[in-house]
Amino acid sequence: MAETVTSKNMALAKAINESLRRALDTDPKVLVMGEDVGKLGGVFRVTDGLQKDFGESRVIDTPLAESGIVGTAIGLALRGYRPVVEIQFDGFVFPAYDQIVTQLAKMHARSLGKVKLPVVVRIPYGGGIGAVEHHSESPESLFAHVAGLKVVSPSNASDAYWMMQQAIQSDDPVIFFEPKRRYWDKAEVDTEAIPGPLHTARVVREGTDLTLVAYGPMVKLCQEVADAAAEEGRSLEVLDLRSVSPLDFDAIQASVEKTRRLVVVHEAPVFFGSGAEIAARITERCFYHLEAPVLRVGGYHAPYPPARLEESYLPDLDRVLDAVDRSLAY
């Protein structure tokens, strides 16, 4: 008997599409909603073909009204559905911010645990695609600050597939940040593998001299930094957080106790970014292990610039390597 092939090479966007398809196929309570997610298949074609195969009552083209999209999803979740809503671009989420932080995040606590809202809010985020204003934001820290929300971001196709499955199955609301610059990066996806827990970090490269921590779009950059550092005889460990809230501090601590140095990298501004919480907590936990202060590399505390300037705004190989050099100089 021939073996069943469960591993496929696919782009990150395709992996999310396949994951949504599987969820729609196995659970009639799963719905996909958003602007242009149906007939068009989404502006990045992440939902391509889903409405054709599952119908307009399961894959729903909504009006251009983000607050209405999330508000409707909350009502549907109260009736037992599991809506997956798309915010077309990161900068468009703010009209829905009130619904997300005031209603979606708080209903479970407000009802003393009696009401659950299994809603997934998909948000393509980050820069690197030469987009116009409001299309390249990184607002993950705004949502990580809100109790009652889970905030995750895959860095590769395999995680995108399985983390979407886990997010849809979660009884808590999940903000699912999709790194749009990595939509076309391909990787092997085993659609029958047993995944680890949703909110655990993963070491994607072993090292001994310094730990690089990142999530979403910056994981690939950190792997490139580790390759470049290896040419100079330096061994860098790369840790993919996968989840921004909750954070897997145990995994970070274990890595830092081994390497004794930490650099945190994210596209979002360094000021009040997720790296600040990581730096503070790891300094508390690993004070007697650290041989250098925790350093952070990220965007600047300024509005996201026009496309022609984004390469100067976003962390790149040289900026991260400079942080590595500064840390190792202590």
Automatic annotation (TrEMBL):
It is an enzyme of class 1 (oxidoreductase). SUPFAM superfamilies: Thiamin diphosphate-binding fold (THDP-binding), TK C-terminal domain-like. One of its GO terms (molecular function) is branched-chain 2-oxo acid dehydrogenase activity. The keyword Oxidoreductase applies. The keyword S-adenosyl-L-methionine does not apply. Its cofactor is thiamine diphosphate. Keywords: Oxidoreductase, Pyruvate. Its EC number is 1.2.4.4. InterPro entries: THDP-binding, Transketo_C/PFOR_II, Transketolase-like_Pyr-bd, Transketolase_C. Transmembrane segments: none annotated. PANTHER family: 2-OXOISOVALERATE DEHYDROGENASE SUBUNIT BETA, MITOCHONDRIAL, 2-OXOISOVALERATE DEHYDROGENASE SUBUNIT BETA-RELATED. This is 3-methyl-2-oxobutanoate dehydrogenase (2-methylpropanoyl-transferring). It comes from Streptomyces prasinopilosus.
